Amino acid sequence: MPDTICNTSPLIALDNIGLLGLLEGVYGRVLVAEEVRNEFGSGLPGWIDVVPVQNRNLIRALQLSIDLGESATLALAMERQDARVILDDLKGRKAAQRLGVSFTGLLGVAIKGKQMGVIESVDNVMTRLKQEAPTQSVGASWGEPQGAQR
């Protein structure tokens, strides 16, 4: 099974609606870069492993077009043999696509959670996310699973 690496925004969004555990239910262990842990700001559960990114130059290069958390998330994915990332930002998704990194969004996580019996309703999760973060573009940034396969 590929490593699952999560960016900050999906962690915060799921934590805000009390569903951070959805990630554990779907993926088991989840990795985050140190920068993502710092952006998250509070303690992470034990099933989330914090991993340092070795390629600091790649982070700096990616920061020319995307934020620090996304840059570190994608750099960490590039360092792993087989990884998928959870991103919700359109610029981050485009960068992942350019790099050939497999990715999904919160809608993809919710769909997989429903298929696995972790949640009862995708609609309920998405409605709660929209209510908690109404400025997010659910269609574009929390879209269906997609991305290049490595």
UniProtKB/TrEMBL annotation:
<protein>
    <recommendedName>
        <fullName>Nucleic acid-binding protein</fullName>
    </recommendedName>
</protein>
<dbReference type="Pfam" id="PF11848">
    <property type="entry name" value="DUF3368"/>
</dbReference>
<dbReference type="InterPro" id="IPR021799">
    <property type="entry name" value="PIN-like_prokaryotic"/>
</dbReference>
